[in-house]
TrEMBL record:
This is MBL fold metallo-hydrolase. Residues 38-230 form the Metallo-beta-lactamase domain. InterPro entries: Metallo-B-lactamas (IPR001279), NDM-1-like (IPR050855), RibonucZ/Hydroxyglut_hydro (IPR036866). PANTHER family: ACYL-COENZYME A THIOESTERASE MBLAC2 (PTHR42951:SF4), METALLO-BETA-LACTAMASE DOMAIN-CONTAINING (PTHR42951). CDD domains: metallo-hydrolase-like_MBL-fold.
């Protein structure tokens, strides 16, 4: 998708990105750095649909993101892509109850049974209020759409977005979101982190993580803007350097 044209019709925003606390990355594409864990949420605006990328760490945060998206676009969010099943990215998802939700294949299994219990425990361990964790986990519904390879969403007005299952790496269920334009924008989830060293928890697949970043770079290309799960936006050189550092850290041969 690198080099695709900017959509011919991107709706006029009802307020500016900055007025709503968002950072504009390209026409009709922005992101917000959420308080607490500095987690990124993204927004992609098409002629007919609006895609949110990740949903925050609690129901209240998800509801706030949804409200801000409506203030920005004048329309409700129609699609939600979840980059991976960690609490700070996913527990706001129940606030998007009437939205088409997408995740990497297998994410529904990861959010059931023991996985749901571990999600709750992890959220509380990292400092989320137990009552907020209880509320969000109880309301969490698995994604309706499972992405096994690549999935193109048509948001209207010439805006197409590619959902790519590029993992495993940070988790077994890593989904990237690529938005063609000038520049192309790539939402990486926690496959890439800028504000700290990439976190490899018990659900990471370290031996496959460098290869996941190789796939991300092939899809995004040299001139894309890469949006980490945490921290400031970066370029392809940063992603490549982080890929090499992860390979060295985990002893992965070229």
């Amino acid at each position: 998708m690198p080099g695709a044209a900017v959509p011919a019709s991107v709706p006029v925003m009802t307020v500016t990105w900055e007025e709503s606390g968002w950072e504009q990355l390209a026409p009709g594409v922005g992101r917000r750095r959420l308080p607490g864990w500095d987690c990124t949420a993204g927004l992609v605006v098409g002629g007919d649909g609006v895609l949110a990328v990740d949903a925050g760490s609690r129901l209240a945060e998800g509801a706030r993101l949804r409200t801000e998206a409506r203030e920005l676009t004048g329309r409700r969010v129609t699609h939600l892509a979840l980059t991976h099943p960690h609490f700070d990215h996913i527990l706001g998802a129940p606030a998007f109850a009437d939205t088409e939700v997408y995740g990497a294949v297998g994410l529904d299994v990861a959010l059931a049974g023991r996985g749901r219990e571990e999600l709750h425990a992890d959220a509380v361990r990292w400092g989320l209020d137990p009552a907020a964790a209880d509320e969000a986990v109880a309301a969490l519904v698995p994604p309706r759409h499972a992405v096994s390879g690549e999935w193109t969403l048509d948001l209207g007005g010439g805006r197409q977005v590619l959902l790519a299952n590029v993992g495993p790496g940070h988790t077994a269920y890593d989904l990237a979101v690529l938005v063609p334009g000038d520049p192309e924008v790539v939402f990486c989830g926690d496959l890439v982190e800028e504000s700290d060293e990439p976190q490899a928890g018990p659900d990471a697949v370290p031996s496959r993580w460098p290869a996941a970043l190789d796939r991300l770079l092939r899809l995004g290309g040299e001139d894309a803007v890469y949006v980490p799960g945490h921290g400031a936006v970066v370029d392809a050189a940063f992603v490549r350097a982080q890929r090499d550092a992860l390979a060295a850290r985990f002893g992965v041969s070229e």
